[in-house]
Amino acid sequence: MRTETKTYDITVVGGGLAGICAAIAAARLGQRVALVQNRPVLGGNSSSEVRVWVCGATGHGVNRYARESGIMGELFVENQYRNPEGNPYLWDALLLEKVKAEPTLDLYLNTDVHEVDAEAIAGGGENRIIKSVTGWMAGSERRITFISPMFLDCTGDGLLGFLAGAAFRIGREAHAEFGEAWAPEQGDNITLGSTILFYTKDTGRPVRYLAPSFAKDITQTSIPLKRVIRSGDSGCHYWWIEWGGEKDTVHDNEEIRDELWAVIYGIWDYIKNSGKFEAETLTLEWVGALPGKREYRRFEGDYILNQNDVVAQLPFEDRVAFGGWSIDLHPPQGMYAESKGSKHFHMDGIYHIPFRSLYSRNVTNMMMAGRNISASHIAFGTTRVMATCAVIGEAAGTGAALAASQGVAPRELAWSAVQQQLLKQDASIIGLRNEDSLDRARNAAVRASDTLRRIAVERPSTAYPLQSQVGMLFPVEPALEGFSLLLDASANTSLTVELWGTGRLENYIPAERIDVIEVALEAGEAQWVDIPLSWRPSQPENAFVIVRENDFVSLRLSEEPLFGVLGFEYKQQAMKDFDTDEKLQPIVEWRMGGIVRQPFCIRLNAETSAYGAEKATDGYVRPYGGPHLWSSDIITDGRQPWLELSWSEPVGAVEVHLTFNDDVNEDLINLHHHTTPFETMPELVKDYRIEAWVDGDWQVLHRETDNRRRKRVHVLPETVATDKLRVVAESTNGCPYAQIVEIRVYEG
């Protein structure tokens, strides 16, 4: 056995997506970081050991422009390019590569931290401080002690914080504590259970199956009656194979695993041998051995996020991350419950997560990220999904890096400093803008070769019958002065069209009706029909148009999407509360459904300034009441559009930051669940060059080819004194427009 001591600026314990993003964020800010993971692979519940889909704020298409950016965004887009088939082992490899790419980040796999040296702070009341943590590296017989001024608990179960004496909670809070609508009258220790998944494979020849003796006869349970079982499903389609909510999901982990195994092998026996399914050539390809846990300890921070905050989309002054998954809670009995497998509360859009929920209230040098942050059980029902855990991880890692570099506790940090650093990294904070005083682009004059001035989605594809109402969304800046729709009418009729506002700039559903009109239609195909609705909002924002159902009318979809213009289908669903069996408020969702990248054909009469050159320096890095990017007009004849910054006096440019459009409206999920017809986002600029005006001519400072990333940072080989700098888009990955979300310039 070897005994070792390692010293780092920051030690991150837990190598799920929260821990990965925390460690990478801290390392990129120059900190020496140890990432300690007790499994042989990274990724936690998303890894090849468990194989849960990485879900997040998009809510499988419920929320618009909600896909995560920052480090999680890098992982999404790179996985889409490298691993469109959703191979879980390639996902493991991508995570490992990202971690190993950071020179100041050391990875310790198979290392289980089980000792914590923490002590009370003299005169600090209940406050404590962690001195070191110690882990055992399985297979290597190494006992390693990690000494750091800052620690992050990204373990999920919260073991590090528990051993350090951090205040925590387990179970459900009583209704009286936060006044949460979904909280029980009396608090208890009930949690969400654990799940084991399985994969199937079609061998192309008959395969028999003999169930092991421990397999459960599921026909003697409620499972066949209450759960959806299909022979072609596998993986996360069986998320409902869940148990242990009434157990202790940590201390009873072995019992929970055995019960889940018994049910999986019993379900497969039912599929293969009941005669009710076409499964003759199917076999079990993989069965997980590690229960995917959903819930255990949640630490107490200076603020406990609760259901009311999430539903109200409360814009905390110290917000550093966002989520958007529904509040998703499951019955305590799991797969044996007589009720449905889950109930959901869908907010009107994304919600915000405060920095005060990411550090312990009594362990002064401990932060947390993932499912163990400071949140009530009900709020945890949405913050627990992995892409949200990942953006929380980046925020926590960034905060830890700033705290370590300044020698202060996380609660002593200026929130604005954390926020501005996150924005610089392209880790989105909805509604906040770049206020970096060192960014010289903020005081530059901005112009472009050309700009998209008129919203016109005109190239038609298929007809879309108006069997139910549909929605359309587009930016209004400065005013709407009517628009036209391309449609077919099989008879003389009339069409009802409503104009709505979205209420909040981060929301994309109708909230306030502004006007309604009824338009007479004559029978005919492919006719552009004028809709004379007008609106001049007090600030730039999106308009939501509802076209009511009409059995005689079909709208035309377009083959070419335009960023900022969306089409929606309307769905309504009623659910029951599994605790009371009472009907919940109906869920109304404006979804894009099967028309994800196909808006309806529409022409706006008035010109728009929503895509102007100045949008690339307005401080916003994702849609917020409008697209907030510069877009060229349609590229024709090999033209190379450009965006230019100019200053009254020369600047000494040494670093250029570019953020390109990668369509954060496109839902991307690791593992095989959602695929796209393209490997790289078409909107991304593919080939480009950065030029400076030097001695009366444009000098190329850098040229990039085959770009497939949203955020690019280019450090110039030497300081360039110039009063004009521009980015020239030589080609895109398929989009007919060149688009830049943000440009920043820093001096030496």
Describe, in short, the structure shown:
The chain is built from 11 helices and 38 strands. The chain is of the alpha+beta class and 748 residues long.
- Low-confidence segments, given as residue ranges, are 584-588, 592-596
Kindly report the average pLDDT value.
94
What percent of residues adopt helix (DSSP H or I)?
A: 10-25%
| Strand percentage | 25-35%
**Structural class, from secondary structure content?**
alpha+beta
Principal-axes shape call: globular
* Total count of helical runs of at least 4 residues: 11
Notes on the structure:
- The chain is of the alpha+beta class and 748 residues long.
- The chain is 16% helix and 33% strand.
- It has 11 helices and 38 strands.
- The strands form 10 sheets. Strands 20, 33, 34, 35, 36, 37 and 38 form a 7-stranded antiparallel β-sheet that branches. Strands 21, 22, 24, 27, 29 and 32 form a 6-stranded antiparallel β-sheet that branches. A 6-stranded antiparallel β-sheet has the order 26-25-28-23-30-31, with no helix packed on it.
- It starts with a strand and ends with a strand.
How are the elements arranged and paired?
Elements: E1 2-7, E2 10-13, H1 17-28, E3 33-36, H2 70-82, H3 88-100, E4 105-108, E5 111-120, E6 128-137, E7 142-147, E8 150-153, H4 159-164, E9 168-169, H5 175-178, E10 194-195, E11 198-202, H6 223-226, E12 242-243, H7 253-273, E13 282-287, E14 298-299, H8 307-312, E15 319-323, E16 327-329, E17 343-345, E18 351-354, E19 366-368, H9 377-383, H10 386-406, H11 415-424, E20 445-448, E21 456-457, E22 460-466, E23 470-476, E24 480-489, E25 493-501, E26 512-521, E27 524-535, E28 541-547, E29 550-558, E30 566-573, E31 587-591, E32 602-604, E33 630-631, E34 642-660, E35 685-694, E36 697-704, E37 711-732, E38 739-747
Parallel strand pairs: 1-7, 2-3, 2-8, 3-4, 8-19
Antiparallel strand pairs: 5-6, 6-7, 9-14, 10-12, 11-13, 15-18, 16-17, 20-34, 21-32, 22-29, 23-28, 23-30, 24-27, 24-29, 24-32, 25-26, 25-28, 30-31, 33-38, 34-37, 34-38, 35-36, 35-37
